[in-house]
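User: Last request for today: this protein with histidyl-adenosine monophosphate, please.
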Amino acid sequence: MNIKALNGFKDILPGEVELWQRLEGLARDIFARFNFSEIRLPILEKTDLFTRAIGEATDIVEKEMYTFVDKQVTMRPEATASLLRAYIEHGLHVQKPVQRLFTIGPMFRHERPQKGRLRQFHQMDVEVLGSTSPRIDAEMMAMGAMLLAEMGLSVSLEMNSLGCPVCRPGFRVSLLAFLDDRHQALCDDCKRRSVTNPLRVLDCKNPRCREQVLEAPSLLDHLCGDCADHFSGVQKGLEQLGVRYSLNKFMVRGLDYYTRTTFEFITGDLGAQAAVGAGGRYDGLIEQLGGPSVPGIGFALGMERLVLLLQQKEAELPVSGVDLFVAALGTQSTHFGFALAHGLRTSGMRVAMDLEGRSLKGQMKLAGRLGAPHVLILGENELAEGKAVLRNMATQQQQEIVLQDEAATVQILIKIISL
Ligand code: HAM
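Assistant: Here's the final one, the structure of the complex with histidyl-adenosine monophosphate:
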């Protein structure tokens, strides 16, 4: 029986996982600089949560959700809805008027797998709940830009405003009139969307549709006074923080909950999967899900896409996860080395050891492959004389170590190796 992982589901193997850890470490560091706290959420939620939050007529809800039909539960396709469910359920708005939360983990969408698009993928998701200040929008984008810049990635930021329930209906009417004349030229999806969700026609990737909407009216010309003021506040904030951006009037986003500011971090280096992260404001959503009337804004970065970009840059991987390799030859040495390795690990050192009885040559090769900077060679004769040899793999220099009891030997080795 040869069972393989499901299509679109991927193992993250040693060698690559170090990049993920580095990415996650840097993100945690930056989220802490901006005073975000972590929240961990379940993977399975009631299907209704996503239908109501993301919208019935979105691709995610219509085609991509992993739903257990008999149980009415769904594996989360994104984190925002789950995070808001938890925020409402635990009354987090009472604890703090403005909550800054982040979560990192796998999401599930039944999309056609390709480079940078998986069925199980990972997001680093951040949300600020409780503020309408345009400065928060600017700060969120600045934080995303900082993270990407510190990873050494050059990514552009595109932004739009989707208005609010006051101004969007007026825009919808003029968009519908515009699309009416072009209905026949649209793709089948957009023919349907122009009835159910006409804004989505604006960001269809089909070249024919793109051509049709080139002259489409822009939401930015239809914003009500409050939304226009808010959007200009966001732009001023970005300028003040020195974050570069461009306006993209076609950006609609694939989830229905957005109001006002929406944004995407875009790369030219991943083919069709250009967005490495995206988000926006959703001022009515918490209330719509049965919570208090609290505004919110957030974004999520796609980790697979970031890792691909880092790999493309041939980012330097941390070579070694090991401080010392213990090479023991013979039964007595292995016996001694086994306990010594444990003592060193207890003291915090990263130690590898061969327990398969390989030759010295085989063990040195293994130590090299692991990138161990030092090898402690425990030979049978040397051990009988109370000695061992420590080799520095970079300089090839060797030094004799006088073996004492295990605890004292641990201290000697730690001292030499950490010099
Ligand atoms: P989204 O645009 O659906 O937004 O996803 C955010 C990011 O997740 C994308 O830009 C992409 O990098 C990554 N991503 C999405 N689908 C896949 C996939 N199938 N394979 C690999 N990566 C993928 C959201 O999910 C919103 N919840 C973001 C948000 C947070 N808005 C407000 N707060």
